[in-house]
Amino acid sequence: MKNIDILGFIAAALTTIAFLPQLVKTWKTKSAGDVSLVMLFTFCTGVFFWLLYGIFIQSWPVIAANFLTLIFNLLILSLKIRYE
Amino acid sequence: MKNIDILGFIAAALTTIAFLPQLVKTWKTKSAGDVSLVMLFTFCTGVFFWLLYGIFIQSWPVIAANFLTLIFNLLILSLKIRYE
């Protein structure tokens, strides 16, 4: 794996797992009032487009990272709506 | 511009502007208790790596999208710390 690929892998991993602490915090506190619903909708839509993009260019790293990111953010979105 | 590039452009635009509503909400409400500090740190680090990646592969869309995303998230992070 070239250095540049390692850099991309680290970036993808960080911007994917970053949403896990938010998911855990929202689950624990049962509160998401300060989290923007518009952000969650817009971000989920964008990540879905990245997922389509990854499928079209047949890039497994893009597919895997955005699939997980989409799952995490859809879960945060559902908790946000539930606790609203 | 090929269809696939348009898809990537839309994805990049959405996952960049998505953070603007969160920034405005946090600025207006002066409250970010429900937003995870660990998420913000991890996400900012990951976006910074994407920025480096974009510079290395000399891709202006990756550079532009991640530069803006980093700015928005660093602002949200600073407001989060200020109102904590």
From TrEMBL, chains A, B:
It is found in: Membrane. Keywords: Membrane, Transmembrane, Transmembrane helix. Signal peptide: none annotated. Pfam families: PQ-loop. It comes from the Bacteria. It is a multi-pass membrane protein. The keyword Transmembrane helix applies. InterPro entries: PQ-loop_rpt (IPR006603), SemiSWEET (IPR047662). The chain crosses the membrane at residues 6-24, 36-56, 62-79. Gene3D superfamilies: 1.20.1280.290. NCBIfam families: SemiSWEET_2. This is SemiSWEET transporter. It comes from Floridaenema aerugineum BLCC-F46.
